Amino acid sequence: MSEVTTPTLQYRCDGPEEAPVLILGPSLGTTWHMWDRQIPELTKQWRVFRFDLPGHGGAPAYPGGSVGDLTGRLFATLEGLGVQRFGYAGCALGGAIGLELALRHPERLASLALIAASPRFGTADEFRQRGVIVRTNGLDPIARTAPDRWFTSGFAAAQPAITEWAVQMVRTTDPGCYIAACEALASFDVRADLGSVGVPTLVLVGSDDQVTGPAEARTLVAGVPDARLAVVPGASHLVPVEQPAAVTDLLVRHFSTAWQPAFEAATGHIALPAVQVQAGQVVVPQQTGPVAEIAAVPPHPQEGEPDLYETGLKVRREVLGDAHVDQVLAQTDDFSGDFQEYVTRSVWGGVWDRPGLDRRTRSCVTLTALAAGGHLEDLAVHTRAALRNGLTPGEIREVLLQVAVYCGVPAANSAFRVAQQVVREETTPQE
Description:
alpha/beta, single chain, two-stranded antiparallel sheet, seven-stranded mixed sheet
């Protein structure tokens, strides 16, 4: 018998060994070096633990296909080091890991900072499209456009060395691990769970972030019961790199004042701060957050379990893309509404969500059936879906060659013509 163990993460620690532990989580395509300029100040108070995502920064290339998997690897690493209690700050994908930690291991988390984060990172289309681009063209197209996503134009122009450093970070990432991390972000959605985050939380965002900007930050603040919002002017997505002093100051203030007392496992309670008596009045010490934009909105009510329609709509969007589904639903009227509801419930919620076949296999079967039946418009839609589901152009070619053998050359000829055009459109990098 062989024992299966959870892979651990590449990490480094800085600061006094006896100090409380503060973990810094990286963004997709970066390494722990994105936090270099925060380290001198943070290590005055904390033992700072930084980690690399799989395949990033020379870390072992064991792809993690979900945020939950990456969180499990981080937790296994901390367990191996004997780290029992910690604060956590994470940027983008690192922030998603922080949310998972807060939901899965609340007893271990003292305080949380979410930077350029979101409970759901836009639509799944963008990240699955990145996977298609990387499978076909490698990481160079993604690397070349990284500065546009990460920095304001003024910063990129004024800091060419940092801009080139950012490009090289992406270029040296393992492609398979990058694709898996994109899939992790595509499937991440904790909007319904935000009310369960039970630690003081700083939500920090750059004012000019076009990836996960102030709107996403406010969604977090509205959902997390004890959350404060800090908007950093003149910064884009990789705000710890672009505005290091402002981010450092906000982190120091937050973790200095909002370090929650330890969870008591024996009672299931968290110890409250000691009260003070002043002039005969009981005074509870107040926490002071960073000087920033503050939002205090009651958490959203917990939603019930999704029904088959909601499940089907989610799967339909993940496979076909939000743009396509939005277009179909926008064209739905009283005449076609019942049919669209049937398709969403029965096809996407009832069949595509079944566990018996993975989505790659279902895409192969679907392409074959559509090509054999001559349904070329749907074949184009599902060729795009197959690329998002992880099929390479070469694998789609093999499916259509199989169609030629068993369904006839004319059917395959038409299918090749349609699929060839879709593959060209979907795998050509956008400048």
